[in-house]
């Protein structure tokens, strides 16, 4: 579902922020500042991109649709991207998407949550499982 695609980084989309040149440093600073702002304000956004509130709404709607479309299934797999995953998990587990900094999400991480329909609550089973990366000799990756 398009609801689980990565956040739109707007003007920063596809830009290199890891080189030592001045432009990369400027873009890295802009990225870092925008990321910090988003942790405090769900309506802060990457320049020309999405904000956490927009990502939360589209991801929760996609999850709701998936659950409604598969009412007899007990297990669902959602494959998404780092920041989108963090926003969705913070929204589900803490009812507060701005708590994204409390969610670790390594590269190819597996997170498992249970939905308790009686209490209408999402419960953490396992977050940020990355041992499968070590088995293949790959780095477990850092948090997004």
Automatic annotation (TrEMBL):
Under the heading Gene3D superfamilies, the entry gives: Phosphoglycerate mutase-like
Q: Which domain of life is it from?
A: Eukaryota
Give the SUPFAM superfamilies listed for this entry: Phosphoglycerate mutase-like
Specify the protein name: Histidine phosphatase family protein
InterPro entries assigned to the protein according to its UniProt record, in alphabetical order: His_Pase_superF_clade-1 (IPR013078), His_PPase_superfam (IPR029033)
- Species per Swiss-Prot/TrEMBL record: Proboscia inermis
């Amino acid at each position: 579902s398009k609801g689980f695609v990565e956040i739109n980084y707007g003007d920063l989309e596809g830009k290199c922020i890891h080189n030592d040149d001045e432009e990369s440093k400027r873009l890295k600073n802009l990225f870092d500042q925008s990321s910090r702002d988003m942790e405090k304000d769900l309506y802060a956004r990457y320049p020309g991109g999405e904000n956490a509130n927009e990502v939360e709404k589209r991801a929760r709607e996609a999850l709701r649709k998936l659950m409604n479309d598969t009412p007899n299934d007990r297990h669902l797999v959602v494959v998404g991207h780092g920041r989108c995953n963090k926003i969705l998990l913070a929204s589900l587990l803490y009812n507060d998407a701005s708590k994204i900094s409390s969610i670790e999400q390594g590269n190819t991480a597996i997170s498992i949550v249970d939905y308790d329909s009686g209490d209408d609550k999402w419960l953490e089973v396992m977050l940020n499982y990355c041992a499968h990366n070590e088995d293949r000799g790959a780095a477990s990756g850092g948090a997004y």
